[in-house]
Specification:
This protein is of the alpha/beta class. The protein has one domain: Spore Coat Polysaccharide Biosynthesis Protein SpsA, Chain A, CATH 3.90.550. The chain has 7 helices and 7 strands.
Length: about 240
């Protein structure tokens, strides 16, 4: 991972989101510029089959802070996040969905908690979720199962809007599907996680890429893997004998 050279890196994995990308860049640019801090926007194109890549090429000319990564083949959200993490140059690293349902206006409050050393990671809680009832139900079930297995109380671990201190990211080993468990992975490495309410907007363009099977059953499989990791994490105190 690169050494910090800007204040904030925002990472957004994108798959077939050509209709959302221009507004995503505009909103991120407006929010981050108003903060008066240096920043970069990293959009990771997950081998989109629509015109996303050409849209991003055009946007690079309008936004000097925009960086575009493109995966060689479709690899999923976790791999895109890790690619963004390894490329990010920010003191703080933010992840956000590309579908415009997360609100960039929530980023300053998250950064403030990191700035004041009240947290090592801040995760959003979509307290007024703007989704179809079946999608909300599947996420609610998945959250309850995760919390039961992993002994946590996080209300909305699947919320993509998260902020991290740069220095904790190299400690986080990711595997396929574990982007849903970032709060657990961060906490089991001894870092402080704070959850705050964030805005959530209805999807007005494009379609969701994940259905009930992905949200519940694949999440359950990954939850058992994370539980195994929790039980086998190495924690010890060692001292060298002095002469």
């Amino acid at each position: 991972m690169n050494k910090p050279s800007v204040d904030i890196s925002v990472i957004s994995p994108a798959y077939n989101e050509q209709e959302c990308l221009a507004d995503l860049c505009r909103e991120l640019n407006e929010t981050l510029s108003a903060m008066g801090r240096s920043y970069e926007i990293i959009i990771v194109n997950d081998c989109s089959e629509d015109d996303s890549l050409n849209v991003l090429r055009g946007l690079k000319g309008n936004y000097p802070a925009l960086r575009v990564l493109t995966m060689g083949k479709r690899t999923g959200q976790t791999a895109c996040m890790e690619a963004g993490f390894l490329t990010a140059r920010g003191k703080y690293v933010v992840t956000i969905d590309a579908d415009l349902q997360n609100d960039p206006a929530d980023i300053p409050a998250m950064i403030e908690l990191l700035d004041t050393n009240k947290a090592d990671m801040v995760t959003g809680h979509r307290h007024k979720r703007q989704d179809h009832w079946l999608r909300k139900l599947s996420t609610k079930v998945a959250n309850r199962v995760r919390n039961w297995l992993n002994h946590e109380t996080i209300s909305d671990s699947a919320c993509a809007l998260k902020a991290y201190k740069h220095e904790i990211i190299p400690k986080l080993k990711l595997y396929e599907g574990l982007h849903r468990f970032m709060t657990t992975i961060v906490a089991m490495n001894g870092f402080r996680v704070v959850e705050i309410p964030v805005n959530h907007r209805p999807r007005t363009r494009g379609v969701t890429k994940y259905g009930l099977w992905n949200r519940v059953f694949r999440s359950l499989r990954a939850a058992f893997a994370v539980r195994w990791m929790q039980r086998h994490v190495l924690t010890y105190d060692v001292r060298e004998l002095e002469d």
